[in-house]
Amino acid sequence: MDCDSPSTDVPAGAVSRRFVGFTALxxxxxxxSVAALAATVGWHxxxxxxxxxxxxxxxxxxxxxxxxxxxxxxDKVAVSTAFAFAMLLCVGVLPACVxxxxxxxxxxxxxxxxxxxxxxxxxxxILSVAGAGLVLMAAGAAPPVALxxxxxxxxxxxxxxxxxxxxxxxxxxxxxxxxxxxxxxLIDDVAFHALTAGCLLALAPGVVASSDASLAFIPLAxxxxxxxxxxxxxxxINAHLAFHDLLxxxxxxxxxxxxxxxxxxxxxxxxxxxxxMIIDLDDFKSINDTLGHQFGDRVLQLVAPxxxxxxxxxxxxxxxxxxxxxxxxxxxxxxxDALQCAEQLRAALQRPCEVDSLALHVGGSVGVALYxxxxxxxxxxxxxxxxxxYCAKSERSACVIxxxxxxxxxxxxxxLAAQLGRGIDQGELVVHYQPKVPLNQAGACAVxxxxxxxxxxxxxxxxDGFIPLAEQTGLIKGVTERVLQAAxxxxxxxxxxxxxxxxxxxxxxxxxxxxxxxxxxxxxLAQFAxxxxxxxxxxxxxxxxxxxxxxxxxxxxxxxxxxxxxxxDFGTGYSSLSQLQQFPVDEIKIDRSFVMRxxxxxxxxxxxxxxxxxxxxxxxxxxxxxxxxxxxxxxLQELGCDFAQGFHISRPLPADExxxxxKAMAGRLPAKPRRFVAYSEPRVxxxxxxxxxxxxxxxxxxxxLPPADTSAW
Length: 713
Known about the structure:
This protein is an alpha/beta fold and 713 residues long. The chain has three domains: 3-242, Arp2/3 complex 21 kDa subunit ARPC3, CATH 1.10.1760; 253-402, Reverse transcriptase/Diguanylate cyclase domain (Alpha-Beta Plaits, 2-Layer Sandwich); 426-712, TIM Barrel, CATH 3.20.20. It contains 25 helices and 19 strands. The strands form four sheets. It has an eight-stranded mixed β-barrel with strand order 11-12-14-15-16-17-18-19, surrounded by four helices. Strands 5-6-4-9-10 form a five-stranded mixed β-sheet, with helices on both faces.
């Protein structure tokens, strides 16, 4: 009559033993009821035509269930109730039981419901109708019932019995199937079920009266049933939307909170653990900013089912909003088990997402908190999982489990991020300069501008302490503009004093996606009267560029102005051959990790030599970072490297100290530097994208190496 067991897509192997046992008891009781009815009242069809017409509408009603959202799935309110109860009143108990059970089984089998649930649904319908018939007979109104005022109390009692039996049986089965406490499940939404069932049962006497007049009137009685169906269906849809994300179809934050609450209660009773995880996609903001929010939405729609499959039946996946997802996992054994589950979720993101023929690598980080050791309430667990996620992002780790010391670390870094915007506006960023000297008579000295944050309370903070925060909070644009202003202002001052030096400024790939970057740089060059040839931009971030075409267009505009382009930390992450093919490049900078190890690690020495040969073959300047000994500098000179940069030459210095050092170096440089290919000279078979088409006969470049160090800033 009333509610069916939740979500009919549960395989037989997935149902709980308690539900199977309850189904067995229900089936035995139903079989006993049918046998007792057959022995006592028998099967009598005084009006076979009415029986078959009503059976047809019972079957139609079973195929039109009203979905009722619950925390663990969907219950169903069957609109066939009115016609089944009408059949009980005007045909008999046993025919009504058989017709109702057969219609239920037919609808369930067509929906490929698990066999154990088919059996349970049919059995609980038999018991509901049999109980109502027993009440009618006990009240002296044995079916078939002649309608008159005197039998109204008996009909109302029978309807109440039908509702109560069905609600208790179906609710208990659904609670056992979802592994939830039975009593709260029965109480939940009981008012909605009672109202719906009351409306349907109230129609039954009208159906009987219509059939007494003529069978042709029975279809007319189906019209109000359809009205109840559509109204209830829309109400169910609205309730479902209130607890689900419209974009991905996943449960939303509210359903997650309810699910975690239920999981914590169950874990407290069972003395088990629950894991709460928050998953955040890497660099998703740049996808929205460059490709549009509609494109980003499609990426989320691809990611959601991957995470759902990876989580499997262990728990619930929800979308918190934006690019954040959350998962609650029951029955976690220990932290190792929780980390393995988190790794499965992260691994599901590794396969590229293909949208409109564009393949995007959308990685992710996971923060994990466990009940009871990391918190005993929903709010605390979610907050601690978020703290762990923040640490995973900051440390560039894949999955992190919450630790108590993370709280202070997270709060400190969040406070630092809040202060960074103020620091940019108040001029707290300072720029130091590290010389870059020529090897093999390769030209004049250059410098790289390296930013520091002169915090009023914490002192000088290196780039590792705030550049990742600037990227995460969208302040990187302001940082880049301040560094450009300081570097070009210093360049103008040194040029006025007779020292013409090229200045290198680091820009992240996020900055390359800024439409206004060429105009900003052009305005700054004009403001300080600095020629474009005195500025070089170093692409430092080793992560994927979401919109390669736009980044290439920006770099081409800058290069057309005369600004040169360098690839920093070459050989790590995405800083490899692919960038030489896609971007207009004038210089490559060998990552310091290779240069520092080249004296002791033969593989690194081979790699450094290969990169230098690659640069020579492509007509690019090559700079080696991390030069810390004279012997390394000599080796680089013998290999034909163009420039060297590192602590052996000089640490980053304030502008005045660097100026004095460059003056001293200028006096020691050869008067006639050898000719080298610069940005202004055409390269062989150049396609306009900075790559010369020549056969490469060098060793392959390794790309699976540690990520770039932000200390380059």
